[in-house]
Design brief:
The chain is an alpha/beta fold and 400 residues long. The protein contains 17 helices and 14 strands. It starts with a strand and ends with a helix. GO terms for molecular function: glycosyltransferase activity.
């Protein structure tokens, strides 16, 4: 079967897309990818996946403006439609595998225009809830602009259309599957879970040597990833003054200049600036080194419609590296950590409870949490299991 993936992003930076492409190739499928161009020279193939790239700068300002209006008001991207239709025709694509909601309506129209082409909608996140969350974190002007130009109700209609018309839908956790079945009237037989688990083979090839120059002494509590209000990093900083003095916070990653500034100011106002280390953005290849240097790794999400229906890749990275975890009791986070006994669970946005739990762990042997997490990603929560689930989705398409 010839699979054409559509990705409204750059490649090979997207870890999930790379894993899925490899899993499908291992099953004997041919995989092609249409994505956005990044900066500089980029390969025409990665790991056997032939790649075509859309260079947005190659289009006139007027063309892009008209295209933007079409997308805002109709969730339809004319430039992507033309390129994807040609892409699918040239490669004689059997299945369009569309990553994330913004391109699904376009992908469905491409498939209808060509006839016998199936569509797999790969919804990495609850997109309407995610947009509502991101907008709530922006300025009043930006919130009003979003409400006027692309209200959440319009995005929800596009979501229901994707769920109803795609030949198969792939999502990341059972909570998201329930959302698509219950809230979007999805067919249970067509909604599948392929989670954001880690490829252990790839993790094992990466350098796990701790990074002593960037990591403080004492009991190190870390967070890896992007910054932003819904991530809950404010809770960690506010909890720090109530923990023993040997506890330090290691924030690996970055956000917008505004979010970085806000977190640094909060650390100053809480009197713990000397106990919080900001590394800035680091290469993905270096992430295991920071996790290995940590005593406790965290996912302190606030509770929103988005965080309740998704799970970040970082949780499984922590578990794969046998690092005990602390997560908030939000959606799949608390469920998975309790089920796997890989760490501890605290209420969201509760600095006092978070501080108390961290304080209890200082000085204790936490090896059992790390070992339990590792066993989980070698079994139920490993990419080998999810890759097989993805291959079964494609097996089902061939029998219809």
């Amino acid at each position: 079967m010839k699979v054409g993936m559509l990705l409204r992003g750059t490649y090979p930076e997207d870890i999930r897309v790379r894993k899925e492409a490899a899993a499908l190739r291992e099953a004997g499928h041919e995989v092609y990818l249409l994505c956005l161009a990044g900066e500089g020279t980029e390969p025409a193939a990665v790991d056997g996946v032939a790649i075509e790239r859309i260079d947005w700068d190659g289009y006139s300002v007027a063309t892009r403006a008209v295209n933007r209006a079409s997308y805002l008001f109709g969730s339809f991207d004319a430039i992507w439609f033309r390129r994807a239709r040609r892409f699918a025709s040239v490669h004689d694509i059997d299945v369009l595998h569309v990553h994330d909601l913004p391109l699904v309506r376009t992908g469905l129209r491409v498939a209808r225009s060509l006839g016998d082409v199936s569509v797999v909608a790969d919804l990495h996140e609850n997109y309407p809830a995610a947009m509502a969350q991101y907008r709530s974190e922006r300025s009043l002007f930006e919130r009003l602009q979003g409400r006027l130009l692309r209200p959440i109700s319009r995005i929800e209609r596009a979501e229901r259309e994707a769920v109803g018309q795609a030949d198969a839908l792939v999502t990341v956790v059972e909570e998201a599957r329930d959302h698509y079945i219950t809230d979007c009237d999805g067919d249970p037989d067509r909604v599948h879970v392929v989670s954001n688990t880690v490829d252990l083979d790839r993790i094992e090839t990466m350098d796990h040597t701790p990074v002593p120059d960037d990591v403080p002494d004492g009991f190190v509590v870390s967070y890896v990833g992007a910054f932003g209000p819904h991530r809950g990093l404010e809770t960690l900083i506010r909890a720090l003054p109530e923990t023993p003095p040997e506890v330090s916070l290691l924030l690996v990653g970055a956000g917008s200049p505004e979010s970085d500034r806000r977190l640094r100011q909060l650390a100053e106002s809480e009197g713990v600036a000397d106990r919080v280390t900001f590394t800035g953005w680091v290469d993905f290849a270096d992430v295991p080194r920071y996790i290995a240097a940590s005593d406790l790794a965290t996912v302190p999400h606030r509770e929103t419609g988005h965080t309740a229906t998704t799970v970040p890749h970082k949780l499984f990275q922590y578990m794969a590296l046998e690092t005990p975890v602390l997560v908030t009791d939000v959606g799949p986070l608390g469920r998975i950590v309790r089920e796997t006994e890989s760490g501890v669970v605290v209420p969201p946005e509760n600095p006092t409870a978070t501080a108390a739990r961290i304080s209890e762990l200082v000085g204790r042997d936490l090896t059992h949490y790390g070992e339990s997490g590792r066993r989980a990603v070698e079994g139920e929560y490993g990419w080998a299991r999810d890759a097989e689930r993805l291959r079964r989705v494609y097996d089902d398409l061939t029998t219809r």
